[in-house]
Amino acid sequence: MSKNKNTLKKVWKYINRYRFSLCMSILLAAITVALTLYVPILVGYAVDKIVGTGNVNYVGLIKLLVQIGVVVGITAIGQWIMNTINNKITYNVVRDIRDEAFRKIEHLPLSYIDSHPSGEIVSRVIADADQFADGLLMGFTQLFTGVMTILGTLFFMFRINVWIALVVVILTPLSLLVARYIATRTYSMFRKQSETRGEQTSLIDETINNLKVVKAFSREDKCVEEFDAVNEKLYKFSLKAVFFSSITNPATRFVNNIVYAAVGLTGAIAACKGVITVGQLTSFLSYANQYTKPFNEISGVITELQNAIACAERLLNLIAEKPEEPDAADAEVIEEAKGCVDIKNVSFSYSPDKPLIENLSLSVKPGQRIAIVGPTGCGKTTMINLLMRFYDVNGGSVEVDGKDIRKVTRHSLRKSYGMVLQDTWMKAGTIRENITMGRPDATEEEMIEAAKAAHSYGFIRRLPDGFDTVIGEDGGSLSQGQKQLLCITRVMLCLPPMLILDEATSSIDTRTEIRIQKAFAKLMQGRTSFIVAHRLSTIREADVILVMNNGRIIEQGNHNELMKKNGFYADLYNSQFKI
Predict the structure, then answer these.
(1) Considering only 177-181, 235-239, 356-360, which range has the smallest mean pLDDT?
(2) Which of 110, 153, 357, 579 could share a disulfide with 291, CB 3.0–4.6 Å?
(3) Architecture of 341-575 per CATH?
């Protein structure tokens, strides 16, 4: 229950932004409830106008019927306005939470993103937010009017007859106890349902994104088995959640019908004794019915709120995640980096119990081309992550132009690098938008020149709309090589002072690769460059080759020097040409 209270407090902070609309909704709820409860009084008066043989007051009856019509009309308009306001509050709150969740994703450390399935995060922002909206909307729509109806009907019933009203009050707690008993069991089921839904979304997302791999290894049946297992788990949790939530309404209705029967019996006895009139009995029965109805609605609301709170908790937990360490208050801005990089006694590991890089030191002069080679898992990509400050070092420091990168703004640091990775990334949009991502103000001539330098202009020109051709998510129908050429074009357009090329030509044919290497050679002139490559023939011209193994630099020098040593690098290089 404490978790529920904490979640509700957090949700209230978002609702409180729209307190004026909330007050208007409560005011309209009070007005519509008051008018709704006024109708039984008018009906009671109308019944008394026609009780008795030959004692029908037609004039008075018509006036009362007109009054009833006017009150019902005003009530309907009030309810329509109230529902409109409730919808606006609900979707504004969900929009704000979604917006904050997406902004938080932008500022989460990469360690969080790397350790959580993307589909599970998507499920929180999309599916959980929708479920939360449904529960919140039902709460606004029925909770206010329900509570006010209960209070209003009690007031009017006590005015008509205290003793009959006491019968209602004494039996009412039975309905509340039943609803509470069921509600306590639904929350855990709804939470498990929400978590499993996220797991299912993650599996679907993973399968779709890697469908080629699934088909290549004939894992279709295995993927179906995994999906069936998650689906079965979701089915069990959903069934239990729906079962408990579905018995709430019938159970409370059963109790409420007992209340109604008790009121009808005691009221009839009182009417026979002349304590109340037939019209008052009619009003009392109407109030008793209206009094019990909100308990049915509120019990349904409580069930939906349990689901909404469970979904809100997952969404708010995402928002509450610790963001990446913010830039220091006195962080400097790198205006034009010269390209001097010093790595001093750096230690780093993704997991405390698994050391990766220890006491790594390196001094890179401006304009040098540094190639990083080594077996898989030796720390090449990790070194790139540290240079870009995607991860912070555990010990030591990384400096650019003599400044510790933890004391400069991330934006200015990353703007100083141009990065082309083996894994390409294209957003849904035009070719132009993808190329100018780093320089939105680039001219048409600059963009064409960059495309020619990257050897992408040829295939871009053959596209239906050239640079304005729209591509889908992750490049759509473009080949992997074409997407990589576009990523290279993006860097060519920015011309940053430092470059990071991580297998930048891995998906390009040999002929085009030779041309790209020439373009890179021109681009790298005067720029500090870090090149990660598995094909060692592509880095023979590097000024310094760092040979890494188990997070350490075990050899260092140019190609000729390392080959003369006849050590680890020489074995690695020669192994690529052995048949």
Answers:
(1) 177-181
(2) 153
(3) 3-Layer(aba) Sandwich (3.40)
CB atoms within 10 A of CB 484: 27
Are 47 and 279 within 8 A, CB to CB? yes
β-pair partners for 430: 470
What's the pLDDT tens digit per position in 514-548?
766 776 777 777 788 888 877 666 677 788 888 88
Give pTM, 2 decimals. Answer: 0.64
- Alpha carbon distance 491, 376 (integer Å): 26
Contact residues for 128 (Cβ-Cβ < 8 A; gap 6+): 194, 197, 198, 311, 312, 314, 315
CATH 3.40.50.300: which residues of the chain?
Answer: 341-575
Helix (H), strand (E), coil (C) string for 16-76: HHHHHHHHHHHHHHHHHHHHHHHHHHHHHHHHHHCCCCCCCCHHHHHHHHHHHHHHHHHHH
**What pLDDT digit, counting tens, does each position of 7-51 carry?**
778 888 888 888 898 888 888 888 888 888 788 777 777 777 776
Report, as an integer, the average pLDDT of 404-427.
Answer: 83
Q: Which 3-state string (H, E, C) describes 315-380?
A: HHHHHCCCCCCCCCCCCECCCCCCCCEEEEEEEECCECCECCEEEEEEEECCCCEEEEECCCCCCH
| Chain mean position to CA 571 | 48
d(CA 310, CA 308): 5
DSSP string for 221-271: HHHHHHHHHHHHHHHHHHHHHHHHHHHHHHHHHHHHHHHHHHHHHHHHHHH
Instruction: Give the pLDDT confidence of 248-298 residue by residue, as tens digits.
Output: 667 777 777 777 777 777 777 777 777 777 777 777 777 777 776 776 666
Please classify residue 128 by burial: count the beta carbons closer than 10 Å to its beta carbon, then call 0-12 exposed, 13-18 middle and 19+ buried. buried
- Contact of 124 with 315, CB cutoff 8 Å: yes
Run of H or E residues at 466 = none
Measured at the CA of 479, the angle between CA 473 and CA 480, to 5 degrees, comes to 85
Q: What's the fold here for domain 2-319?
A: ABC transporter transmembrane region fold (1.20.1560)
User: Which are the contacts of 22, defined by CB distance < 8 A and separation ≥ 6?
Assistant: 15, 89
C-alpha to C-alpha distance for 198 and 120, rounded to whole angstroms: 5
Closest to 200 (Cα-Cα) out of 281, 122, 310: 122
Partnered with residue 524 across adjacent β-strands are: none
374 in Cβ contact with 380 (< 8 Å):
yes
Please list the residue range(s) of the chain that carry CATH number 1.20.1560.10. Answer: 2-319
Within its chain, how far is the Cα of 551 from the centroid? 35
